[in-house]
Every structure is written in structure tokens, then in C-alpha cells.
Design brief:
Elements: H1 3-100, H2 106-137, E1 146-149, H3 150-161, E2 170-172, E3 179-182, H4 184-201, E4 206-213, E5 216-223, H5 257-267, E6 271-276, E7 282-289, H6 292-316
Helix pairs in contact: 1-2, 2-5, 3-4, 4-5
Length: 317
């Protein structure tokens, strides 16, 4: 092959390569342009979603702030209403005793002092109910569990809220000698709130009974009142919820009794829940651990479940 024959072939090859290269460059430019357009479209979509998400979060935050403010206003109004009644009663009877104690009959003095004592006790219970929720939520409420006689405690609380001879009594069928392992003071608070709820909203029959169930002992406070409406069943354990509100409220209280009872029960390894009573009325059930070993095992299981839930939440983030 001569040099003259190679030269034309080389020129053809170069021209072909230049043509092919030109096509490749044009294709690359076209692809780059398409990619830029797609990237710009994706960026627009992402930015719009981000803006929409930020707007939605801002709206949710504003709604949460409005709800929190409404709850705060309701809480302040209800607490003010509840405090005013016993304070007025205490101040009135104390002033009467101060001015007229020398001329009053002994039975009248005893009656006035009894009223002052009951109203003072109610104020103490109200303050305790207000304070226990944030303590529980912050994990600062210390419990002092011990083994004690549940039947005696229930009878004592029942006699306090339904004193004999007042026309309305609670029938307690829990025998003496039933031993449970929990914090006696907080157990008393749970029983008091459940009985107070039955006294306010139940009918003329209130029954407290109990039975063992596995590692727990279940206390049932039942009444023959109207019961809880279907639409309110999921709300009765929410803070500040009452079946009647505002100026139409027919019962005292600030809607903390049932939420506090449930939180305290769960903190002690038990629970509080609602059941319907046939043919009418309500059943509020409260479970407590029977032995210290059962309480320790249930507490360990609860902590393990909380740690697993926290770890799962961390993994999702």
C-alpha cells in the first residue's frame, strides 16, 4: 500500500470521526439540557412541597397554640369557679364564728367547724389534683409502694365521701384482708376520684366491689346513673373534660379526676378503664398489683416497652 492510497483513507476517517463526534456532542448537550430542565422541575416541586410543609407546620403550630390557650383559659375559669365556692364558705363561717362564737349554741359551733374542715379538705384535694399531673408528666412524682389492706382503705374513703345518715351511701363489698402492693396515698387518691365521679354523675346506687384477676386485684366502682354518652367515652380521660361545661355545668370539679386516676394507676403498674353497666349506668375499673414481685415484674416490662418504643422512634427519625 502506497502513501498516496493511505492519505485519502485517513482524510475520510478523520471526517467520519469529526461527524460522529459532532453528533455525540450535540446529543450530550441535548441530554444535559434535558437533565437541567428535569432538575429545575424537581427543584420547583421540592421547594413547593417544602413551602407547603412549612406552611402546614406553621398552621398546626398556630392551631396548637390556640388550643393550648383555650385549655388554659378553661382551666383558669374552672379552677377559679371551684376555688371560689369553698373559700367563700370557709371565710363566711369563720367570720361568723369570730363575731358570734359566744352567742352560738355548741352544736352550731360544731356544725360550722365541720363545714370549714370539709371545705378545707376539698381545697387540699383540689390543689393536689392540679399539681399531680405535671409531676407525673415530668417524672418527678415519687411513689412509695408497700403492701397494705385495700378493703380498709376503700371503706375509709367511702365513709368520707358518703357519710352514714346523709341519705346517700356507697355499698362496699371488698372484704378486709385483701392485700395489694402500691402507694397507699396514691391509691386513696384514685379511689377518691372514682367515688367522687360516681357521686357527681351517678344515680342513687353506688357499689364498690372487687375481685382478683391474675397478678392484679380489680376494684369496680359502679352506679345506676345515665352512663357516659357514646361520643364522650374517648374524652372522659382527657384533662379538663366534663360532661357539662360552662355556665350549664351541674357538677363541681375541674375535669381532672379521671385522667389523674388513670395516670396514677398506670404509674403503679395497674390501669383505670370504663365499662358500660347493664341496663344503665357506668362501671369504672381500677387494677392494682397484688404482690411486690408482680409489681416489680410489671414495672420492668413497662420500662422495657418504653425503651423499645423510644428506640423505634429514634430509628424512624
Amino acid at each position: 500500500m502506497t502513501l498516496a492510497s493511505v492519505a485519502p483513507m485517513t482524510e475520510k476517517t478523520v471526517l467520519a470521526a469529526q461527524t460522529l463526534l459532532g453528533v455525540d456532542v450535540s446529543l450530550i448537550v441535548l441530554l444535559v439540557g434535558v437533565l437541567l430542565v428535569v432538575a429545575a422541575a424537581v427543584a420547583v416541586v421540592v421547594s413547593r412541597r417544602a413551602v407547603a410543609r412549612a406552611r402546614r407546620q406553621a398552621e398546626e403550630a398556630e392551631l396548637a397554640a390556640q388550643q393550648a390557650n383555650a385549655i388554659k383559659n378553661d382551666f383558669v375559669a374552672m379552677v377559679s369557679h371551684e376555688l371560689r365556692t369553698p373559700l367563700t364558705s370557709i371565710a363566711g363561717f369563720a367570720e361568723t364564728l369570730r363575731e358570734s362564737w359566744q352567742t352560738l349554741q355548741p352544736e352550731e359551733v360544731d356544725e360550722f367547724l365541720t363545714i370549714i374542715g370539709k371545705q378545707s379538705a376539698y381545697l387540699g384535694e383540689l390543689v393536689e389534683d392540679v399539681l399531680v399531673i405535671p409531676r407525673l408528666q415530668a417524672g418527678r412524682l415519687r411513689l412509695y409502694p408497700e403492701t397494705f389492706d385495700l378493703g380498709k382503705l376503700v371503706h375509709d374513703v367511702s365513709d368520707l365521701l358518703f357519710p352514714p345518715g346523709q341519705g346517700r351511701e356507697a355499698s362496699v363489698s371488698i372484704p378486709a384482708g385483701v392485700r395489694v402492693h402500691a402507694d397507699p396515698r396514691r391509691t386513696q387518691q384514685v379511689i377518691r376520684n372514682l367515688l367522687e365521679n360516681a357521686r357527681k354523675y351517678g344515680g342513687d346506687q353506688v357499689l364498690v366491689e372487687g375481685f382478683p384477676y391474675g397478678d392484679h386485684y380489680v376494684v369496680v366502682v359502679s352506679d345506676n346513673g345515665p352512663g357516659v354518652p357514646d361520643e364522650a367515652v374517648n374524652l372522659i380521660f382527657e384533662h379538663f373534660e366534663q360532661l357539662s361545661k360552662g355556665d350549664s355545668r351541674s357538677a363541681s370539679g375541674i375535669g381532672l379526676g379521671l385522667p389523674i386516676a388513670r395516670k396514677l394507676a398506670r404509674a403503679m403498674g395497674g390501669d383505670v378503664w370504663y365499662e358500660r353497666r347493664f341496663p344503665t349506668g357506668s362501671r369504672f375499673c381500677f387494677s392494682l398489683t397484688i404482690t411486690e414481685a408482680a409489681a416489680a415484674r410489671i414495672e420492668a416490662e413497662r420500662r422495657a416497652a418504653e425503651e423499645a418504643e423510644a428506640e423505634a422512634a429514634g430509628n424512624r427519625r
